């Protein structure tokens, strides 16, 4: 595979997704960054903005398996991973695999399940392995988790533990569409080409096969990332740990995420090199869910986004 093939694949993927998802170009790009960096994404948005439909569409376009888990307070870890069931005919235990054995897993409303259930994803997200009754099973190499949560509804929810949030490369905020986009959606809803019908009709083509994703990801390594920019990323992450308004800063996994995200962002822009602007554009989605502000600054109404912008201004940009 060549860099041109990666560029062509990304362009075709965007075009096919756009047949279903109206607008939301930045959100689609950030989801593609997670996928091609072989990481995971946390999608946050109010109900009805097509979070689930977006992930289903990406799985279809990229020729990958898809499974959805609706997280609820009574969901158990075995409902996610699977369990061994005794087979009377064979007189032995047989593994009944859970929905986690797929390529693209949508953890819908992940914060509606308690920490015990959320923790069932920790090993899978970090190591792409699942342990069931002391036996370890491999997941597909392209295993990707997209978790959704509602930013305005907190009744009956369980905040994600820091260890869980840290495993998500990006926090992807999905806002309501603009008027023109919503008008287009309204028109399509009244006809035969609604977004859901378009995806079900077969009009959306698969751009690659699941096994091709590994080769495409390897092409990201050809994108130049200067040593000065590596140092820039390290300085940004370290600055989060000393900023006056931050109680808990970002850890080393954030450094890795920002590097990988910046490289994937350069590929989406059609370049074979990373710029400081790539790093800056990825800083907020990489850090937003990882930082914890001091209570006194939260009371004053300071947002995490404003803190990250302040940190970016303080860190010297390499020439």
Write the layout of secondary structure elements.
Blueprint: H1 3-18, H2 25-36, E1 41-44, H3 51-61, E2 66-70, H4 77-81, E3 82-87, E4 92-97, E5 104-108, H5 115-118, H6 122-127, E6 129-132, E7 135-138, E8 144-149, H7 162-165, E9 170-173, H8 179-190, H9 195-201, H10 213-218, H11 227-240, E10 246-248, H12 252-268, H13 276-287, E11 292-293, H14 295-299, H15 304-314
Parallel strand pairs: 1-8, 1-9, 2-5, 5-8
Antiparallel strand pairs: 3-4, 6-7, 10-11
Q: How would you describe what is shown here?
A:
With 319 residues, the protein is α/β, with parallel strands linked by helices. The chain has two domains: 3-193, P-loop containing nucleotide triphosphate hydrolases (Rossmann fold), CATH 3.40.50; 223-314, Magnesium chelatase subunit I, C-Terminal domain (Helicase, Ruva Protein, domain 3), CATH 1.10.8.80. Helix content is 45%, strand content 15%. It has a five-stranded parallel β-sheet with strand order 2-5-8-1-9. A two-stranded antiparallel sheet has the order 3-4. The two termini are 32 Å apart. The model has no long low-confidence stretch (mean pLDDT 91).
């Amino acid at each position: 595979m060549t860099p041109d093939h990666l560029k062509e694949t990304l362009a075709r993927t965007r075009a096919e997704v756009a047949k279903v998802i109206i607008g939301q170009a930045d959100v689609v790009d950030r989801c593609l960054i997670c996928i091609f960096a072989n990481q995971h994404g946390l999608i946050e948005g109010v109900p009805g903005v097509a979070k689930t439909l977006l992930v289903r569409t990406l799985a279809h376009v990229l020729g990958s398996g898809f499974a959805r888990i609706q997280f609820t307070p009574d969901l158990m870890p075995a409902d996610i991973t699977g369990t061994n069931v005794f087979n009377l005919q064979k007189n032995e235990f047989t593994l009944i695999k859970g929905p986690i054995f797929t390529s693209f897993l949508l953890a819908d409303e992940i914060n509606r399940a308690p920490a015990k259930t959320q923790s069932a994803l920790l090993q899978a997200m970090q190591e792409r392995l699942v342990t069931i009754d002391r036996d370890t099973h491999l997941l597909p190499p392209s295993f990707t988790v997209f978790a959704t949560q509602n930013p305005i509804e907190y009744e009956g929810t369980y905040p994600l533990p820091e260890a869980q949030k840290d495993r998500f490369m990006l926090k992807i905020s999905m806002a309501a569409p603009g008027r023109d986009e919503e008008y287009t959606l309204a028109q399509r809803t009244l006809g035969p080409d609604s977004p859901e019908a378009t995806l079900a009709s077969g009009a959306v083509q698969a751009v690659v096969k699941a096994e091709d994703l590994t080769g495409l990801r390897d092409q990201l390594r050809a994108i130049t990332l200067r040593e000065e920019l590596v140092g820039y990323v390290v300085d940004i992450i370290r600055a989060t740990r000393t900023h006056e308004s931050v109680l808990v800063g970002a850890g080393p996994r954030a450094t890795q995420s920002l590097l990988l995200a910046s490289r994937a962002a350069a590929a989406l822009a059609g370049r074979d090199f990373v710029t400081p602007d790539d790093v800056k554009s990825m800083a907020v989605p990489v850090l937003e869910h990882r930082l914890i502000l001091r209570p006194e600054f939260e009371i004053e109404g300071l947002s995490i986004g404003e803190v990250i912008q302040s940190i970016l201004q303080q860190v010297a940009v390499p020439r």
